[in-house]
Amino acid sequence: MEKGVPIRSISRSIAVMQAINRDGPLSMMDIANASHVPYPTACRIVQTLLYEGLIEREPARKRYRPTALVQSLSYGYQSHDELVTRARPHIVGLTKSVGWPVSLVTRVGQCMIVRDSTHALTSMTLNNYYPGYALPLLECASGLAHLAFCSAEERRALLAGIRESDVPVNHNTMQLLEGGQLVDEIRREGIATNGRNRHTLNPGKTSSIAAPVFANGQVAGVMTLIFFASAIKMTEAVRTYAPMLKRVAADIGLELESGQPVDLRAA
């Protein structure tokens, strides 16, 4: 444990629980695929979770869903209430201005977790993404933004952990991050992008632009604007929306630091 070597059985159990909690109800095959855990292992883990009462099987079909008991796993967690409260008027205003949905996300482990979004406020979206939806760190614009703007120590630790995990990774992205080229590019532009998002409810249909929200010199969260990949090219989207996204992210950061609301009419 001094070297941070994970216990594979626990890592796989967490992956199964996260898959069911994120995407359920799921069939056993869906669970194995979503968690990247071998089918026989996934079956044993599901039986354990059933025994512990964290999941249940739907009465009418062989699909599994989380129970209310999963909330017991988060009793000691302090949520990002202030971040969400401060950001909400800003992301709503941005969506009203541009039409596209905006998500506010933060890092948890090797995932970026949706804390709030405006998908329900616009017709220019394919799905609603509610708080708790998880995206792999290397496979989303918000994750790339977090990795680029967090401390070098945190970035090294996260990338090392991803390399040691069982989760398939984009090795080209990993090399560019470890080599610093992609980090320098994102920091220079102030945003990260991801074309044809793969880890969404409609893989390949949307693209994203993300900008970090800073508070007291640290990344407090990331704002992501999501648009139809077929509606606008990434270069045009960046030219059109990146300045607004960065300005709104900066305003949220100012509110977090000062405790005073920024006049949205002046933006």
Relevant terms:
single chain, 267 residues, alpha+beta, six-stranded antiparallel beta sheet, two-stranded antiparallel sheet, 9 helices, 8 strands, 18% strand, globular
SSE diagram, text form:
Blueprint: H1 8-23, H2 28-35, H3 39-52, E1 55-57, E2 64-66, H4 81-98, E3 102-108, E4 111-117, E5 134-136, H5 141-149, H6 152-164, H7 171-179, H8 181-189, E6 192-194, E7 206-215, E8 218-228, H9 234-258
Helix pairs in contact: 1-2, 1-3, 2-3, 4-9, 5-8
Task: Write structural notes for this entry.
- The protein is α+β, with helices and mostly antiparallel strands.
- It has helices at residues 8-23, 28-35, 39-52, 81-98, 141-149, 152-164, 171-179, 181-189, 234-258; strands at residues 55-57, 64-66, 102-108, 111-117, 134-136, 192-194, 206-215, 218-228.
- The strands form 2 sheets. The chain has a 6-stranded antiparallel β-sheet with strand order 5-4-3-8-7-6.
- A hairpin with a 2-residue loop joins strand 7 (206-215) and strand 8 (218-228).
- The chain is globular.
- It starts with 7 loop residues before the first helix and ends in a 9-residue tail after the last helix.
- The model has no long low-confidence stretch (mean pLDDT 89).
